[in-house]
Amino acid sequence: MSVMSSPVEFLELLAREAAAVEFEGPLVAARAAGAPPDRLAELEQAKVVALRVRALLERRRRRESELSGLYDTASDLAGLRDLDAVLRAIVHRARHLLGADVAYMTLDDDERGDTYMRVTDGSISARFQRLRLPMGAGLGGLVAQSGTPYVTANYPEDERFHHTGEIDAGVGEEGLVAILGVPLRLGSTSIGVLYAANRSARPFAREEVSLLVSLAAHAAVAIDTARLLAETQAALAELSAANTTIRAHSSSVERAAAAHDRMTALVLRGGGVEDVASFVADVLGEALLALDAHGRRLARVGQIDEPDRADLVEAVAASRTEGRSVRRGPFWYAAVVAGTENLGALVLRPDGELVDADQRILERAALVTALLLLFRRTVAEAEGRVRGELLDDLIARPLADTDALRTRARRLGVDLDAPHVLVAVGDDAIAATGSARQRALSWATTYASTRGGLAAARDGRVVLMLPGRDAGGAARAVSRDLSRVTGRPVTAGASGPSTDPASLATIFQEADRCLTALGALGRTGQGASTAELGFVGLLLGAVGDRGDGDVARFIATTVGPVVDYDARRGTALVKTLEAYFGVGGSLARAAELLHVHVNTVTQRLERVGQLLGPDWQKPGRALEVQLALRLHRLREPAP
User: Fold this and answer.
1) How many helices (H) does the chain have, and how many strands (E)?
2) Beta strand pairing status for 461-467 and 454-458?
3) Tens digits of per-residue pLDDT, 597-635?
4) Peptide bond before residue 619 is cis, with ω within 30 degrees of 0
5) Beta 492-498 vs 527-529: how paired, if at all?
6) Is residue 419 within 8 Å of 467, Cβ to Cβ?
7) Strands (E), 502-607
8) Eight-state DSSP code of residue 397
9) DSSP class of residue 199?
10) Order of strands across the sheet with 326-328?
11) pTM score, two decimals?
12) How many CA atoms within 13 Å lie on the side-chain side of 269?
């Protein structure tokens, strides 16, 4: 018997991990060499033992590979960073360890109520890779419902499962025949299925099922770990966001408080609304407009247009109601209020979005502005009382110490030795209601003080002492502007100028008589001076109680026929009479003044004689005619 026909040969075959068929070689060689039966029996027994050892070694190698795969999977879980990568590794190992053609994993979609293909390995069909399975359908549905592994050697022919057209089409396109599915479980809850499949019929041993169950358990742990990690990261992100919000809020509060402190310091140093507006625009880096309760501009910083009046009213009302600044289009509005009183608004035009701190700064600026406006009004009222008391003393009789009055005036910025005119405002401006009287006096105080003058209420009148020499112009300006404020016609009579405090009482009386004369002439809502009314003004001022009715009757009875004739015929008899009396009764000079022929003047005067009677040129009658003509002209002054 040769050496190769000995049992040792089987050990050599085991040592080089020979294929199972090679273990028949020693027996074939022994039979060919004519070995006796006992020797052949010995070799047969050695072959059987060697094959058992070979099978044991094979199982141990496979087990070692399985354990190595599970160890690698556990290592992946320990360093979990990317769930997709871990799941792909698990599916790949399942395919490799089980020697399957395809391995894949499906997960439940709670929102859609079905399952979907999560990971595949070895798949060649795009349709299969995109499969979505109804709950309970296919082998996976049975595995998910029962929570136990299922295996089929021929899926297309297996009637244990609920087949659907979509699933069968995908499985058929992939060419799968034998399929093993095991559940992915978290506690008692199934979250998906892990599969191993072949494109030909094959049985799956219990060891293979057990291995796939272990891999599925690792996959479930990976999914749960990833979920917990995601929740932890989300919680950390929320905590970080909350911390950021808290820091931002704290910074916002501190920034707004610092801005408020700076605005307070600014006010304490004597700053006004303009300074607050400049500060806010500087801090926010924007353009800002400060308006009073009537929409008039108090201050403007930067390039900003005044908003539409209707938008302004609506936005300020909304800001007052909400107690916050509000946005309307490109503007932010903050109401300036004191209690229930509307004092105005701050209008901000930002280049970008305002954060909470910016809004708080704007709102605190509105509060500071309200305090400034209240303080300004209080100071103005106090100063107005002082100025009113000074003017009242100046026009009183007997006049107090003029040197003391000059000293008081200098403290108020008024030079009594400079030219001043006095304007008296009539009862029509102050006789309506108490609020109207107060509004007229408040306006007069502001109007006079801004021009370096004084204002006061005196004997039912509002009196203004204004610097300048044009008494008539001052009266007309006061009449015009105060009429707009009160919404009703205001009559103003003026006199002056005066450069001596001692003469102010007399000038006041003249302005008062001028005011009376304007009323007698029917010129309500107009302004004029004593110089403009002339001697007629003095006459009417002295007898002003007779009123406008007597003046009209006097004009009608004296020159009424001439006035009516002109009105009907469009002639110039009144103008001719004024020119005739104006040149001392000279026909030639009257014709020259009127730019007409002397005969024309003669003819016109003859017509006057026919209308007024033959005695109209006698001294007494002529004086009445001249006075009536003057009154007629004063009642209808030239524009």
Assistant:
1) 21, 16
2) antiparallel
3) 888 888 888 888 888 888 888 876 777 777 777 777 766
4) no
5) parallel
6) yes
7) 527-529
8) S
9) S
10) 297-301, 287-292, 341-349, 331-338, 326-328
11) 0.40
12) 9
